[in-house]
Amino acid sequence: MSGAFLLHLLRHGAPELTGRMLGRTDSPVTAEGMAACVARVKPLNFKKIVCSDLMRSQAVADAIGRERGLTPTTDARWRELDFGDWDGLAAADIDAAALQRFWDDPDGAPPPGGERWSDLVARITDAIEDLTPETSLIVTHGGAMRAALKSLCGFGLRELWAFDLPYAALISLRIWPDRTAQIVGLQTDPVS
Fold first, then answer.
1. CB neighbourhood size of 141 (10 A)
2. 104-138, pLDDT tens digit by residue?
3. 107 contacts: CB under 8 Å, gap ≥ 6
4. Which residue ranges form the domains of the chain, and what is each CATH number?
5. Residue of 101, 122, 123, 121 whose CA lies nearest to 112
6. pLDDT tens digits, residue range 57-73?
7. Are 141 and 11 in contact (CB under 8 A)?
8. Is 119 exposed, middle or buried (0-12, 13-18, 19+ CB in 10 A)?
């Protein structure tokens, strides 16, 4: 179909602070995490880089941009889900029953003071609607990538959690003018 374009969604590299509910809580990316992201996108061709406004995405986008001669655009809509009162905590520090209710129904049982799943999907959908029809790389977060798949492919929660999205994971999609999509690539293997 004419008017289709490629969209590459890259999860930022491993942050220095791991094992936490990192939504708005930020952490620098490790050198290894940065290198994994830069290596992951080497074979790709894209004309534009967009990233969330969190340093773990911005640093990766800046490093990739320097290699490509591209200046990344920052868009806060590509942020991770806001975990509210849980943001920055380890799962072990959160009431287990409340955390399970969230995993089972992230819209009906959001973190206290946090964002509902449907709100994340809505802001990611808005960001997708504003994309220009050119091949782009979005450096973002695991939750935002899953929200994009919900928006573009219609996946339910069960399907969205049926695959792993480790740090430096890459999903490539063909986007049609009506903002539906087809997954054309998924890379989750370790990058060396």
1. 24
2. 999 999 999 999 999 999 999 999 999 999 999 99
3. 116, 117, 118
4. 5-90+118-187 (3.40.50.1240)
5. 101
6. 999 999 999 999 999 99
7. yes
8. middle
